[in-house]
Write a structure and sequence with these properties.
By secondary structure, the protein is mainly β. It has no helices and eleven strands.
């Protein structure tokens, strides 16, 4: 599977304490390598399958609506949509 970088980010809220964004990840697309400067939580809007890649590991994950993917401050990862349909996430970053 060859994923292309095709994620779309849209800001929902941004203030000194937290940031809320929505991520739209088309089928077989990737976020590209991301560095999370704050504690970050991705909340899935629907079921699907994602591959979370970091320098140390690859984690193939089946997700369901409402499931959270969490990343600690300083983590570097890439999220790849392994599904054959678009996935959406609400992304919460706590500063």
């Amino acid at each position: 599977m060859k994923a292309t970088i095709g994620a779309t980010w849209s800001a929902q809220a941004n203030n000194p304490y937290y940031r809320i964004r929505e991520l739209t990840l088309p089928a077989l697309a990737s976020t590209g390598q991301q560095r999370f400067d704050f504690k970050t939580t991705f909340v899935a809007h629907a079921a699907g399958r994602v591959l979370v890649k970091s320098k140390r590991q690859k984690r193939d994950t089946e997700i369901i609506a409402g499931q959270q993917l969490e990343f600690e401050r300083g983590a570097e990862s890439e999220i790849v949509n392994s599904s054959n349909r678009e996935l959406r996430f609400t992304v919460l970053e706590f500063k």
